[in-house]
């Protein structure tokens, strides 16, 4: 009897393994095609200071005719593995710069756009030239670009990474550490490198109002950041309780579903117009 059961389990197990393998191949192949065509879309998620939009983050979206919506959380790591991430980040960066410049030219408030940059970009020489290229083709001033990089960039080849960051700062773009606290959290970059901003990872933000340890930790991060003159963003705010707690702690900027999900460029335009109207 138990053998029969085992057989059934093994059968389902094999099925699901095979499907996973097929899915992966399908994603890889479709990804190669869409990267060649540059057939992505860029969504934007605003960041707020009180009820005013201070900047926005560009987040890539891939809607495949066969696969449907594929989350960047699943295709970015694959793109990193199979060597497509350079082209993807290049596409996002150029697109974000062009869009930001277009908004500025059309009279929208001038606010920076944050672009996520894979840690893989720090393993080669092209990041600095990629940023220069994006500035040239878009005509955007460098102070409107913020590059979001994750802590994992600072694990190895620190001298090399430091030289790249300094070159980027010389160009005039801003540097933000994304998902701060999530992984390897070293304080070294904050001390040694010209970092402008940290984004506290969502895991420290969710339910912060009812978690004493979290709130003390975040309070400490905030006072450290203030001492170092770093801008602090809390990411992933979903509830009013979380918002109120972070605001009372004096966090500079807030971002999350409570305020807005990532939305299309068109939708951002009407948000910016409303925002502008409110200020008058
Ligand atoms: P990230 O940079 O940490 O971006 C935050 C992610 O959390 C986004 O997911 C965003 O939609 C989501 N998020 C925002 N507010 C909330 C909230 O209140 N609750 C919850 N549960 N989630 C929230 P998304 O758009 O799926 O992106 C996932 C990750 O993919 C990003 O994490 C980023 O690391 C990466 N990514 C996105 N676009 C690019 C890109 O152009 N290049 C690279 N290298 N990575 C990208
Ligand atoms: Mg980010
Ligand atoms: Mg993040
Ligand atoms: Mg995160």
UniProtKB/TrEMBL annotation:
Domain EAL stretches: 24-276
Protein's UniProt name: EAL domain-containing protein
Native species: Lederbergia citrisecunda
Parent-protein start and end of this portion: 588 to 867 of 867
């Amino acid at each position: 009897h138990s053998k029969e059961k085992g057989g059934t389990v093994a059968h389902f197990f094999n099925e699901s393994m095979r499907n996973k393998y097929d899915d992966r191949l399908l994603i890889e192949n479709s990804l190669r095609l869409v990267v060649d065509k540059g057939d992505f879309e860029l969504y934007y998620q605003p960041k707020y200071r009180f009820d005013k939009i201070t900047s926005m983050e560009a987040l890539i979206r891939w809607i495949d005719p066969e696969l449907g919506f594929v989350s960047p959380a699943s295709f970015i790591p694959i793109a990193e593995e199979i060597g497509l991430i350079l082209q993807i980040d290049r596409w996002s960066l150029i697109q974000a710069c062009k869009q930001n410049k277009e908004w500025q030219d059309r009279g929208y408030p001038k606010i920076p756009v944050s672009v996520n940059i894979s840690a893989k970009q720090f393993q080669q020489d092209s990041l600095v030239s990629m940023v220069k290229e994006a500035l040239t083709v878009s005509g955007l001033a460098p102070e409107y670009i913020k590059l979001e990089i994750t802590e994992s960039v600072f694990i190895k080849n620190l001298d090399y990474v430091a030289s790249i960051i300094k070159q980027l700062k010389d160009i005039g773009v801003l540097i933000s550490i994304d998902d701060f606290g999530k992984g390897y959290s070293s304080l070294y970059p904050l001390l040694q490198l010209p970092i402008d901003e940290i984004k506290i990872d969502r895991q420290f933000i969710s339910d912060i109002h009812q978690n004493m340890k979290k709130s003390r930790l975040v309070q400490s991060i905030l006072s450290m950041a203030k001492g170092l003159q770093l801008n602090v963003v809390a990411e992933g705010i979903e509830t009013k309780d979380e918002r109120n707690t972070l605001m009372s702690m004096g966090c500079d900027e807030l971002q999350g579903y409570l305020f807005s999900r990532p939305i299309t460029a068109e939708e951002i335009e009407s948000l910016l117009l409303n925002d502008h109207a409110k200020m008058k």
